[in-house]
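Take a minute with the sequence and fold tokens given here and flag any structure token that looks odd. Thanks in advance.
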Amino acid sequence: MAEWTIGILGGSGLYAVDALEEVQWIAVDTPWGAPSDELLIGRIEGVKFVFLPRHGRGHRIPPSDLNYRANIDALKRAGCTDVVAISAVGSLNEAMAPGQFALAEQFVDRTFARPPSFFGTGLVAHVSLADPVCPRLSHLVGAAAEAAGADVARGATYVAIEGPQFSTRAESRLYRSWGCDIVGMTAMPEARLAREAELPYALIGMISDYDSWREGGEPVEVAAILERVRANAETARRMIVELARSLPDERPPCPIDTALDGAIMTAPDARDPALVAKLDAVCRRVFAQP
């Protein structure tokens, strides 16, 4: 049993957490480059939180330019045990309306310009990603969101697009035909990398709009999204407080804590020392084994 340390990846409209106490901003260096911003570290109800504004304070970084590997590595180095992603999303499902929150359960990855893994030539690994979110963490986040006053839709399939443009109407209708419920630009490879780093991951989407699939519907515009995001962000802040209040005093183990067991294919004597050095945080537990 161990203490919880919750990493929060704050998306559009969520750049700080006011409820944090004992607050300090800390710069973290990673072998993958600089994360989006410094880490805001503090406590809520005695629980340690590590907050990282995904796009940087002031929303400086577009989705394709985010250093996803550095962000996840930084949270791992800061001692995070679990990661909650909070993201603005569009709805592809009539039943998931703007103003609601949606818990992602599955992902469809349509990104193409982002490094998808910590591993590569010199150290090959294949983690299981059949169930990409942690059900325990997702349940806790959903309950906290409801306690904060959110109307929460569960079991959503999130399609991650490259962006930065929004979908065409044809693309939006295609994603609906695939059974996708929400659309965004940041969940991938974020969820993939969290699993490689043995970090249980949950994503809750703040629905800002119906995407462009509706007949006669208005095109997606940033101004309308920002108005909805500002309202949703206040609920998200309350959700984080409710999450802190709901966590058990001690954190029971999770199967994702050992996701790398059996995943690394490369024999120890064939591993690239430079890549091994870069993976000192991600593979700390595995490399420490005799």
The longest strand covers residues 82-91. Helices lie at 68-77, 135-147, 169-177, 190-196, 222-246, 273-278, 284-288. Residues 5-118+130-253 form a domain with the Rossmann fold fold (CATH 3.40.50.1580).
